[in-house]
Each structure stands twice: as structure tokens, then as C-alpha cells.
Amino acid sequence: MKFIEARTITKRFRKNTVLQHISLSLEKGKIYGFQGINGSGKTMLFRALLGLIQVNEGAIYIKGERLQRSKPFPVRAGVLLENPGFIKEFTGRKNLQLLASLQKDTSNADITSLLQEVGLQPDDPRKVKKYSLGMKQKLGIAQALLGSPEFIVLDEPTNALDENSLTALENLLHAYKRAGATLCIASHDKAFLQRMSDQIFTIHEGTLTS
Ligand SMILES: Nc1ncnc2c1ncn2[C@@H]1O[C@H](COP(=O)(O)OP(=O)(O)OP(=O)(O)O)[C@@H](O)[C@H]1O
């Protein structure tokens, strides 16, 4: 069974068609790259696959189950979309602890290792409002990976990362893949996408090609 299947989905905002008859089929334990110019529809496609927007036509299936607004999302998903939400008055750890409290099976030790894995100091006393851009990006990635989700969606995860942090991110994402996660990654960094992806899709004006 496919992990995710989109069958001829179309999304329109009034007369503007932002996704056009997109079909795709994603397998478990693979990394899929998405490239395309600004405004081509990458984020919109991610929102649709996550059930965050309702499509006008077509359907999306996760592990064979049709996505429906009335039902909870069928698998645990971790998401980094533009402008991740943090509570800026809290430390990075406290932000993750808050999220983890919604998940029964994420311990403090898990949070410590995750912070280390993304390249943040687990006991950094600074509040997030004092974080640099790259640190916020790392915390956003940690939020997406918290609780080892089966489905990981990352929009521009390399933004603001230095060279060493980029290498660490690549290793980390490969580890999640080896553990069986399915990843969708949008990036303007072609070399990064080439290194990471089992398959790369290109989106152009809401239409998908591979
Ligand atoms: N809420 C909205 N209402 C109407 N149109 C929208 C809305 N959000 C995005 N769009 C339009 O949908 C299209 C696709 O946008 P999307 O954010 O998916 O692009 P993208 O490929 O992720 O771009 P970027 O590389 O800049 O992140 C664009 O034409 C955009 O203007």
C-alpha cells in the first residue's frame, strides 16, 4: 500500500487555480524533494497533503484512508512550514516540553537528545526571543521531528543554517528516513535536494512533474 496518494487534486482560490490536477504517490521510508519557483504551489501542496486546506477536486489518501476534515489526521505528522510558532518568552526546551505534553510518549530525555541533534544546547537558558535566525530554524526543525512522526513535512528547512548545521541536518533527516519516516521537503537549494531525495518533483504554476 502507498503511504500517501493524491488523486488529481485541484485547489482554487476564487478564479486562481493554485494546484492543478496533481496526482502523486509516496512510499513509506523515502524522502521526496519538491522544487519550483516562488509561488509555484509547493507550500499549498504540503498544506493539502496535511489536510490543512480542503481541495476543490480530487482526494488524498494516507495509508489507504481518505483524508476528511471531520476525522483526525491518520498518522502522526511533523511539520515545518513558514514562520513556525514559538512562545518567545519561553526557552527552546520549554517550547518543546509544551508540545510534548500533547504527546503521551515523548520524555524529557527525548527532548534533550533532539535539541542536541538539531544543534541547540539543551540547557540554554535564553528565551526564544533572544535566539538568532538559525537557532529559531533549528528549533522549528526540532518541533517538526518531536515524537518521531511517520510523516515529516519541511518547507525550506535549510534557511539560515550554516555549513556544519546543514550537514548535521542531512544526517539527522537520513536517520529519520532509516527509521521508516516518509519525508517531503521543499527547497530552493538544488544540491541539497539532490543529496537528500529519492525522487524530486518540480511544481510549475500548480502543476507537478517528476
Ligand atoms: N491564502 C491564499 N489565498 C489565495 N491564494 C494564495 C493563498 N496562499 C497562497 N496563495 C497563492 O498560491 C500560489 C502558491 O503559493 P505557495 O505558497 O504554495 O508557493 P510556493 O511554491 O511555496 O512559493 P515559495 O517558494 O515562495 O515558498 C501563489 O500564487 C500564492 O499567491
From TrEMBL:
GO MF annotation list: ATP binding; ATP hydrolysis activity
The protein's name in its UniProt record: ABC transporter
Keywords: ATP-binding, Nucleotide-binding, Transport
Domain of life the protein comes from: Bacteria
Similarity comment: family membership: Belongs to the ABC transporter superfamily.
Pfam family, one: ABC_tran
Ranges where the ABC transporter domain occurs: 4-210
Organism lineage: Bacteria, Bacillati, Bacillota, Bacilli, Bacillales
The keyword Transferase is assigned to this record: no
Presence of the UniProt keyword Nucleotidyltransferase in the record: no
